[in-house]
Amino acid sequence: MKSNMKKFIALILILFSAGTFAQEKLTLKECLSIGLKNSKELAIANSRIVSSSAKVDEINTQYLPQLKFNASYSRLSDVPPFEITVPFSPKPIQIAPAILNNYSFRLSMQQPVFTGFRIGSLKSAAELNRHAAEEDYDKDKNEVSMNIHNAFWNYYKSIQVKNLMDENLQMIDKHIEDTRNFMSQGLATQNDLLKLQVQQSNIKLQQIDARNNIDLARTALNKAIGLPLNSPTEILPEEADISAPVQYNLQELVNEALNKRSELKSLVLRIEAGMENVNAVKSTWYPSVYVTGNYYYSNPNQRYQPPQEKFKGTWDLGISLSWDIWNWGNTSAQTVQAEQNVVQSTISKDQLKDAIEFEVNQNYLAYIYNKEKLDVTKTAIQQAEENYRTTEEKYKYQLATSTDLIDAETSLLQANTNYTNSVIDFQLSKIRLYKSVGRMIN
Questions:
Q1: Contact status, residue 292 vs residue 123, Cβ threshold 8 Å
Q2: Which terminus of the chain is more solvent-facing, meaning fewer CB atoms within 10 Å of its CB: N or C?
Q3: pLDDT digit string (tens) for 338-358?
Q4: Burial, 112: exposed, middle or buried (Cβ in 10 Å; 0-12, 13-18, 19+)?
Q5: CA–CA distance, 320 with 291 (Å, rounded to integer)
Q6: Which of 17-31, 88-102, 247-261 has the lowest mean pLDDT?
Q7: Cα 425 vs. chain centroid, distance in angstroms?
């Protein structure tokens, strides 16, 4: 009974392990979902949003009254009590006893009334910086999505190239078998067989490179989607979209990029925040007005005379004004610094616009170039297939040499490889173009 139970438990464990380690093939959409969820870059970008939101909350608290509580205790040295001598009195009259223990509790309130527009400017700057952080998040999200697309399609390309190698090797194996039959009939020579065997070895070497490329591409995809690098990830790709391209207008693409790019929006928001910071610095040229109030609970309370060794409460309420009349140009120097930060950011914005325009031009030309390559390689496949079909047919009747057959096979393999590369390059060039004009990648 125990033996059967052990076998049953072992079987359950094996089935559980098999289910646990079974690797489902991932679609592009699933890779994007996993990658965006695991992205450390997006986690950092989201943390910046949370931090900038907390900064807005911090500034908002400055509109509200600030309450502070203070408590103190002191022990005084022993001194004689305060007494006066009155004529005809046998004893001096004690005015105030010597109170050696002093306790003091104070609750203070300060409410800003006017701060030279400092709080409002700081709040506007903080809100603008928060919106800039949100734009940065969108930019980083697009970057991560682009990296996942790139890794996914390159992995797919490496698999397709390996499949082409396998198909080509099967073709050569068949031709070697045919050539052996021809040799037995005296229709082919040993040299014909050797040429095919050399080609067979070359393809096997290329297979090794292709397998290595698959491993490297899989590792790159694992890294892009945040999985362990050695995960046996497999993909289930959709058909690449190689439909006829939209006839884009380059200037319209540039204009779209200048309106949509998140990093440009972010920089514009930070320039506006910098201008608000300038206003905040200038606020020290104005007076600051506060309403203040205090409640004292002390033993002794100095407001009561003569002092008594008892806890008594008193309060006061007032208004205070503070104005920095002269500080040797400190405010002016701080203002210049803040203004120059805005100048630097404005110049950086112009540089970014130039870089965006160049990137759009570059990706637009790559898009057109890869579409042309796709059309050419598609035609080349048709030609290579026809050439191979004709040459193979001739070789069956020994009207073509093994060299002709090898050349036809090599041309067909190269044409198929070029077409596969062109399909993926065109797919990625479209995505890069979309990204460069500020469209969200999904």
A1: no
A2: N
A3: 999 999 999 999 999 999 999
A4: middle
A5: 6
A6: 17-31
A7: 24
| 3-state SS assignment for residue 313 | strand
Q: How far is 180 from 191, CA to CA, in rounded Å?
A: 11
Distance separating alpha carbons of residues 197 and 183, to the nearest angstrom: 14
Are the C-beta atoms of 305 and 97 separated by less than 8 Å? Answer: no
Closest C-alpha to 360, from 437, 270, 281, 245: 437
User: The whole model's pTM is what?
Assistant: 0.84
Q: Are 38 and 233 in contact (CB under 8 A)?
A: no
Q: Is the dihedral of CA 373, 374, 379, 380 positive or negative?
A: positive
**Helix, strand or coil, per DSSP, at residue 416:** helix
Domain ranges of the chain: 24-64+115-287+329-436, 67-114+291-322
Residue pair 429/218 in contact (Cβ under 8 Å)? The answer is: no
Nearest to 267 by CA among 349, 362, 387: 349
Q: Please check whether residue 117 is in contact with residue 283, taking contact to mean a CB–CB distance below 8 angstroms.
A: yes
Tell me the helix, strand and coil percentages in the chain, rounded to 5.
65, 15, 20
Asked if residue 272 lies in contact with residue 372, where contact means CB atoms within 8 angstroms, the answer is no
Class for the domain spanning 24-64+115-287+329-436: mainly alpha
Strand-strand pairing, 101-114 and 93-96: unpaired
Q: What are the tokens at 432?
A: 């890069």
d(CA 368, CA 430): 9
> Residues 269, 139: contact at Cβ < 8 Å?
no
Q: Residue 48 and residue 237: Cα distance in Å, rounded?
A: 34
Distance of CA 346 to CAs 134, 313, 353, Å?
20, 58, 11
* Residue 245 binned pLDDT confidence (cut-offs 50, 70, 90): low
Q: State residue 41's pLDDT score.
A: 95
Closest CA to 215 of 155, 169, 166: 155
319 pLDDT above the threshold of 80: yes
User: Which of these, 385, 374, 379, lies nearest to 421 by C-alpha position?
Assistant: 374
Q: And the tokens for 20?
A: 């646990």
pLDDT digit string, tens, across residues 146-184? 999 999 999 999 999 999 999 989 988 988 888 898 888
Contact 138, 33 (CB under 8 A): no
Phi, psi (deg, nearest 5) at residue 309 = -85, 65
